[in-house]
Each structure stands twice: as C-alpha cells, then as structure tokens.
Amino acid sequence: MMEDITIRFDDTIAPEDRTAPIFIEGLPGIGHVGKLVAEHMIHELGAVRIAEITSIYFPPQVIINEDGSVRVCNNEIFRYSGEKGTFLFLVGDFQSTSGEGHYLLSQVYVDIAHELGVKRIFTIGGYGVGHFNEVSRVIAAVNRPDLRKEVEDAGGIFSEGEPGGGIIGAAGLMLGLSIPLGIEGICLMGETSGYLVDPKSATNVLSVLTKLLSIEIDDAKLTERAGEMEVVLQRLLEQEKKSEEELSYIG
Amino acid sequence: MMEDITIRFDDTIAPEDRTAPIFIEGLPGIGHVGKLVAEHMIHELGAVRIAEITSIYFPPQVIINEDGSVRVCNNEIFRYSGEKGTFLFLVGDFQSTSGEGHYLLSQVYVDIAHELGVKRIFTIGGYGVGHFNEVSRVIAAVNRPDLRKEVEDAGGIFSEGEPGGGIIGAAGLMLGLSIPLGIEGICLMGETSGYLVDPKSATNVLSVLTKLLSIEIDDAKLTERAGEMEVVLQRLLEQEKKSEEELSYIG
Amino acid sequence: MMEDITIRFDDTIAPEDRTAPIFIEGLPGIGHVGKLVAEHMIHELGAVRIAEITSIYFPPQVIINEDGSVRVCNNEIFRYSGEKGTFLFLVGDFQSTSGEGHYLLSQVYVDIAHELGVKRIFTIGGYGVGHFNEVSRVIAAVNRPDLRKEVEDAGGIFSEGEPGGGIIGAAGLMLGLSIPLGIEGICLMGETSGYLVDPKSATNVLSVLTKLLSIEIDDAKLTERAGEMEVVLQRLLEQEKKSEEELSYIG
Amino acid sequence: MMEDITIRFDDTIAPEDRTAPIFIEGLPGIGHVGKLVAEHMIHELGAVRIAEITSIYFPPQVIINEDGSVRVCNNEIFRYSGEKGTFLFLVGDFQSTSGEGHYLLSQVYVDIAHELGVKRIFTIGGYGVGHFNEVSRVIAAVNRPDLRKEVEDAGGIFSEGEPGGGIIGAAGLMLGLSIPLGIEGICLMGETSGYLVDPKSATNVLSVLTKLLSIEIDDAKLTERAGEMEVVLQRLLEQEKKSEEELSYIG
Questions:
Q1: Residue B213 C-alpha, separation from nearest chain C C-alpha, in angstroms
Q2: Does the entry feature the keyword Glycoprotein, yes or no (chains A, B, C, D) (predicted)?
Q3: C250 contacts B102 by C-beta, under 8 angstroms
C-alpha cells in the first residue's frame, strides 16, 4: 500500500549528519525565485542530498532524466556542512496539487525540520506584481514580531498590505505551522513580474538571505542558471498543460 | 502528523470559563453580514478569545498581521460573560474550501457548542438578492418550528421559498446538525446586494438579534467597521484570485 | 466526529417491519424521471419512512421546510407493505457531489438492500436525448442477461449503444455493485428531453415498472406532481447555482 | 463497506497459473495506442482473464454490454502462457479520475506485478504531437539507464526533451514506482496526432515491443480493431461529456 506522503532518508548518511540549525525552503512558485536561489546555493556550496519526499499530492507523473531514465516527481532535502555553516535545503519539482495536500506536506516539512534540530526556517518565494519593475524589492514576513528588525537590517522590506494579506503554499504554511514547534520563520519574497524565471529578483533575495546567514555566496552564475531552468520549466509547463488535457481524456 | 481539524483552547482560561448558553456564528459569507455583526458585538462587548480552530479544509495560506508576522488562517471562538449575559462567538477568515470540509467543520462547531453547554445557536448570514433594495429585510429560518413565533416577534421574516429552498455553508449546516444534539437553532439572514460589506443589512440583523437576546448593543460604529472590513477583504479577495492562479502555477 | 455516511433507521419500526424483496431507487437525475416515479408511488401506496441517510458527499446545505424549519439534505428509505406487495423506495434531495461519493453511497444502498432481504433492485432514471420526441421509449438495462426477456415483455427496450455505453450515478452503480451480492438489478430509463420534470416520460416508466411488479398504480396525478416538483426543483437549482458562487466566495 | 481499490482474482485459476516474468500495461490514453496494442496481443495470443480491479477512483458509472447487461467499469489483468512465452496484460475502460487515484492505482498495479513474479514491466502509450506526421516514431523511456541500449536496438528512440519532461498517468507512474521493487520498466510511446485511435502508431509500437519480447505477432487485424475501438470509444466519450453535465446536474 502507498502512503500519502513518504520520506526516504539516504541511509548511508548517519543520523548525526542530517541535523542543522537552519532550513531553507525553495520550492517552485512565482518567478521560480525560491527554486532558483535554493538550487544556486546547493550548487555553490556543494550540498549533499540526504532525503527524498514523494506523495500522492504531487502531480501523477514521472520526470525523464537526461539519460532517458525516469523518476517519480519528488521534493528533496539537501544538506551543507562546512566552513560557512550547516544548512538544510528543500527543493523539488512541484508543490501539492490540492489545498489539503499543501497543509499535509507543509506539516511534514516542519516536522522533519523539528526532528533535525532546526531553529530557524527561511522560506523563499516570488511576489508577483504582474508587471516589470526597475527596482525589485525583497518583501518579507516573519512568524514572530521580534524577528522583524533583523530582517529589515539585512534589506528585507515589511510593507503593510503586501503581499495582499497572505502568503500561499509551503512558503506561507511552513512559517505558520512552525510557530507551535518554537521554530523561527522568515519569508523572503522577491518582487517579480511572475512570467519568467527571474534571476534579478533571485539576486536580490540571495543578497538579503546571505546577510541574514552571515555568509557570502557568489551570484555570478545565477543568470546562467536561470536560463537553464527556464528551458526545463517551459517543458514541464507544456507537459502540465498537456497533462490536464490528457487526464481529462484518459480519466 | 497533522489532524484534519485542530481545536486549541487557550489553557489559561479555566474550563468553567468557557461555557455559555448562547452561541453566535458569524463566519464570512454573502455581504459579510454575519462576520460584521459578530465582530461588532465582540468589540462592543469586549469578548475574549478562548479557542482557535485550524484545518486542512481552509485555504492553504497564512494571513499577514499588521506587524509583519504571520498566522495560519483560522476560525476563532470568543466569549463574553458579564451583565448582558454569557455568549460565545464563532468568527474567522474563511469557511471550508470543499463540500466535505463544510460538513466536517460544522459538525465540529456544534460538537464544541454541545460540550460548552450551549442551548441555542444563532447563525448569521447575508441573503444575496443581487440588486440594491430600499428596504432590507431579515429573513429567518429555525431548526424547530416552535421557535418561529419568537423570531417573528423580534422582526425576523419567514418567507416561503426564500432563500431559494436552502441555506449553504456553516450557517445552514450548524442549524441542521444541532438538531440531534437538542440545541435550538435560529438563522438570521440580512437581505443584501451581496457585492460589498453591507452595514445597513448588518444593522437590521443586529436589531433582530439583540431583541432575541434581550440586550442592547450600540450600532453607531457598524458603518465605520464595515469600511475597515471592506479594505481588508478586498485584499484577501485579490489574494484569493492570485492564489488560484498561483496554485495552478506551482501545483 | 462525523461519519462520512450515516444511516438512521426509525427505531419505532421493528426490524422485521423493515424488510422487503423489492427495492426501487428514484434519486434525482435527468428529467427527474426516477424521483417523480418513486415519489408518486410512495404517495399513492402510502409508504412509510423507515430510514434517513445523510452524508458529507451531499451538497453542504440545509433544505428549508414549508414551516420555516430546516433539515440537513438527505436520502430517505420508505417502505410499503400491503395487498400490493412489500416494497422499499430510495428517494432524496441530491446524489453525491463527487465520483468517489457516488461509489461509496451506492455501496451503502446495496448493502442496506442486502441486509433487508432484497432480491431485486429497480433503478429508475431518465435518458436525456437533448430534444423533444413524440414517442418516449423506456430504455432498459439489467445486471444479469436472463432478466432481459422479462423486461422486454413488460415494454422495456434494449437498444445497443444506448445510453451511450454507460449509466452514471446511483442508477448504474447500484446495478453493478449488487451483482456480487446476488441481487437482481433492472434499470428503467425514460427517454426525456432532460430539461424539465417530465411526467410523460415518468408515465411510460411507471407503466413498465408496474407490469414488472404485477401491480396497478393510478397515474392520474403524475402530471400534477410533476408541476409541483418543477417549482421546488427550480428553487433548488437556483440555489445550486448561487451555492457555487457563494462557496467560491466564502471558501 | 467499499474498499477504495478492490482486486478480485478468478479463483478457478490456481495461484501458480497467475505468475509471469513480463507485464504489459495498455490502459486508455492518447490515441489509445496502448489499449489497442495490448488488446490486439490479448486477442492474437488468446490470453485469459485472471483478475479484475474496481475502484472508487474510476468514473462513477457502469458499462453496458452488448447483451444489455451491465458491469461496473474496471481494469482487467489477462495472462498468456504458451510457446511464445508467459505474459500478463493490464487493460481497462478508464484510468483514475484524480491525481491521488493515479498514484494509488499505479502502486497497486506494481504491487500485483511484484507478487506475481514479474521481472520487467512494459508500459505502452501514445505521445501526442497534435498534428499528423508522415513518419511516426516510437519514443521510449526506461527506469534504469542500462536498459536503454536494448530498447534502442529494437527501434525505440530516446529523444531528450521528449515527451516534454514527463510521462503522466499509469504509463509513467508504474515505471517510477517499480524502481524500489527492483522491477525493470520500459515505456514505449507511439507518436500520434492524438485525435483518433491510431493503428499506424500502434503498429510501430507493436513492432518494437515484439522485438524486445523476441516473439512475432501478426499485425494484419490492427487497423480493423482500431475501427471497432473507435466506435466504442466515441460512445464512451459522448457519455463522458454527458456524465459531467449530469453529475453537475444531479450532485
């Protein structure tokens, strides 16, 4: 029987090599800002994959790797531990396809963070404004008012009524659901038109995030990565549209 | 693991300070009449928050408070006990996003009412007529025919075939589901165009409700509150629309 | 906690007064043919209500009775036992709102039938042809090929490729799901334009059904009943449309 | 009570006559290429039906057989054991109507395969390109990179970025979900316009598949079968559309 959500840790990695004080979520979303920032950091730091999450709440499809082999679509946890610190990253192909799934998956993510000793979660996303701006702000939210000053000092902007009263999906829910677990939560949203993978917005978010982490990450390859990601995502997006047609056709 | 519906009572409040004979539901709905009436009463009476309900059946998003901190969207129970009587109030950001969720949440609400010693439930809503009327009636329904006369004496109108054979969401289901628990139920629906937060309709409902409760509540600030609520709701509504776009984008 | 599907038998009726060899399903559907035939028979025979089914798979609303009181929307089982025989009837406000709910409710219905000693189930529906016909046939299907001749002798027509390869909802599923229980199943579908409550189609179905039951039922009041039902259903239909708007508004 | 997914093996067939090293999935999909290939092989080989799967995740309807009797819509497993080898086939009326159902059903299919000793699964589908091509390729994917060469030698084409980064439904998920069970998986997708049952595309897929199985299957009747299937599917498709209308009408 299939579980609704399955977590598989790489058992070649010892339990003590899974923990970290910091957890950075960068799942797909508006402008794929979060995904771009998190994947960029994973590559630059050489973070290691320690766990995979699969779920019936993800779209019912497999992804084709470059070598022609397939894998079930998933979310993954990477970990970096080195001179810059110890961080966990959550990245993946998709978020949930249903509202209930968003809650259940986000709860699993914060529960994993809690078990792995996380003290602070960063969720990263885009804030779609629907048009191109000269200057792209980094809008922020926190799950405890006393975190606000620190974020503002790093360049995050708290703007009443933005984003429109709420943050949807894992970026929002992980902040809210980590409150009862005593985990600090900071959401950084890069202003973006929302139409394309947005490396400029990601650069701005990366800047605020690294200040908050007191580390430096080279952002030279962000634009290049955005271009590559755009190609892959266009394919997935096309597939998404086809999927809806096909699902209605075969279901 | 996440429960589908979670109730958290404020444990600084003693169990005997949670009970009440009267329960007033004012969740969001047409013209936000119920929400406006219930929140107005909570403010005027100085009712105290005693419990919070969160659920995977609510939209998958967090609400941003004025100070930049977030909270998971929820429903809340407030309680007033003083010289005017003892009342419970149910208010919140949203109702369920699914039909099944409406049933399951409404059952939880009447079960809570039952446990807290409630003898009578008032559900308050709007009755959308789609156009602006000079006179806005208060249409009523009950869960026992013998309650009808009392409601008519207070100004509630029973009009066969209105509202169109049914009452949807918590306002209707709480009335129906409280029958087997032996709790009396009265629904008051203020006629409204349904397009905006409607303080005139709310004033009329408040008038009937306070007569039935044999209390007086100043309605001077209702219009002012309606204006403030309108601003907040417009934001949420915009967010709702964006959410749908975003969910289809990230899912 | 709420069960997904709840069956409440009237406990003033002894278990031995609940059984019957014949079960007639007439839930809402195309042209409300099944509903009209079953409710007509219930009235003409003076059948007695023995059970009520409520479910989270029904629309989340209450129905307002003529006296202004409400009830949760439901399905009901009536029973007639007298000189014409012993029959159970299944009627109600709605069918399920989801595909999964259709299966789960239909399974409950055939399980109840099985427990009550039912040997044969009749499901009655409309067969929507989208236009008005001079002659309205009664299309039939069975759950065992050897039942076909009997149905044809009574006037039921088996027409390959009609209805289009399948029968949806309870009328179809109850036939299929009763096969493993050894219960015979016959579906009678009155050809109808599908736009209005169709008393002519219902008269034709009643004629075939009563022949199969070897009884006589006066059909004089069918047209009158159809008119009354049309009024009630129009209200519900309007409410349905409003509900969708409201649910999207409050959810 | 109804199980969400039910598997019924024909108990006149001994457990040792259910096993096979090869499992071929041909459920409905784009161009019905998989369904056509699998049903053609079943007929040509004279494979025997050994199990039936029913589920609440299939559309809520029954299928009418030619003799006027009905059956619940299902998926079926056939088995051939003879001089050409021993194969299992999975065919059926529909795939799941929901994303969650796709996962749960696909998991059941690979679990059955595992229990029956299967070492290799072939999933067959169409690859809809939206226009008519002179030459129709057979696009392939595998669940282990080392399977690629064998498939290429048989005529399967691995084309990076086709199909658009993913394979949806059972054809994809069974490949992915069989990885942890140690079962080899090969997906063959016949390029097709996607609008009609496509015997040309099926002929190409059959050619690659039989090379991989080292058997010969006469393809003379494929076009004839495609014509018959087209008639049946048109009916089902019409019924599907009607179903959606009816479900919204009766629900």
A1: 20
A2: no
A3: no
A63: nearest CA partner in chain D: D166
- Alpha-carbon distance of B187 to B124, in angstroms, equals 6
B100 three-class SS: helix
**Residue for token pair 């999935």:** D25
**Helix, strand or coil for residue D206?**
helix
Chain B residues 48-87 with a CB less than 8 Å from chain A: 56-64, 66-73
Instruction: Please answer yes or no on whether A107 and B2 come within 8 Å at the CB atom.
Output: yes
Contact, A171 vs A129, CB < 8 A? no
Q: Is the separation of the CB atoms in B128 and B162 below 8 Å?
A: no
Give the C-alpha separation, C92 to C42, whole Å: 12
Determine the residue type at B191. Answer: E
Half-sphere exposure of B242 (CA within 13 A, CB side): 23
Residue A48, strand partner residues: A79
How far is the C-alpha of B163 from the C-alpha of B169, rounded, in Å?
Answer: 13
- 3-state secondary structure at position D224: helix
Instruction: For chain B, list the domains and their CATH numbers.
Output: 5-250 (3.40.50.10900)
Helix (H, G, I), strand (E, B) or coil at A164: coil
Q: Where does residue A15 rank: exposed (0-12), middle (13-18), buried (19+ CB within 10 A)?
A: exposed
Picking from B72, B173, B85, the residue whose alpha carbon sits closest to that of residue B123 is: B173
The predicted-structure confidence for C165-196, as pLDDT tens digits, reads as follows: 689 999 999 999 999 999 999 999 999 987 78
**Who contacts D46 (Cβ-Cβ below 8 Å, separation ≥6)?**
D80, D82
pLDDT per residue as tens, chain D (251 positions): 689 999 999 999 999 999 999 999 999 998 899 999 999 999 999 999 999 999 999 999 999 999 999 999 999 999 999 999 999 999 999 999 999 999 999 999 999 999 999 999 999 999 988 777 777 899 999 999 999 999 999 999 999 878 876 899 999 999 999 999 999 999 999 999 877 888 999 999 999 999 999 999 999 999 888 888 888 777 767 766 665 565 554 54
- Tell me the shortest Cα–Cα distance from C233 to chain B, in angstroms: 9
Q: In what order do the strands lie in the sheet with B22-25?
A: B5-9, B48-55, B75-82, B85-92, B22-25, B120-128, B184-192, B138-142
Q: Which residues contact D214 (CB under 8 A, 6 or more apart)?
A: none
Q: Does C9 touch chain D (CB under 8 A)?
A: no
Residues in chain A, how many?
251
Q: How many other CB atoms are there within 10 angstroms of residue B228's CB atom?
A: 12
Q: What is the ipTM of this complex?
A: 0.91
Contacts with D117 (C-beta within 8 Å, 6 or more apart), sequence order: D19, D20, D21
What does pLDDT average to over chain C? 91
Rounded-to-integer distance, Cα C18 and Cα C116, Å: 7
d(CA D229, CA D196) in angstroms, rounded, equals 10
- In order of B181, D23, D84, D211, the CA distances from D215 in angstroms are 69, 15, 6, 6
Q: How many residues does chain C have?
A: 251
Least Cα separation, residue D109 to chain A (angstroms): 11
User: Which residues have C-beta within 8 Å of that of residue A242, sequence separation ≥ 6?
Assistant: D128, D164, D168
What pLDDT, in 10s, does the model give residues B135-174?
A: 789 999 999 999 999 999 999 999 987 887 689 999 999 9
Q: From edge to edge, which strands make up the β-sheet containing D120-128? A: D5-9, D48-55, D75-82, D85-92, D22-25, D120-128, D184-192, D138-142
Contact A102, A95 (CB under 8 A): yes
**Cα separation, C171 vs C44, whole angstroms:** 23
Q: In angstroms, rounded to a whole number, what is the distance separating the alpha carbons of residues C65 and B143?
A: 10
C126 vs D: CB within 8 A: no
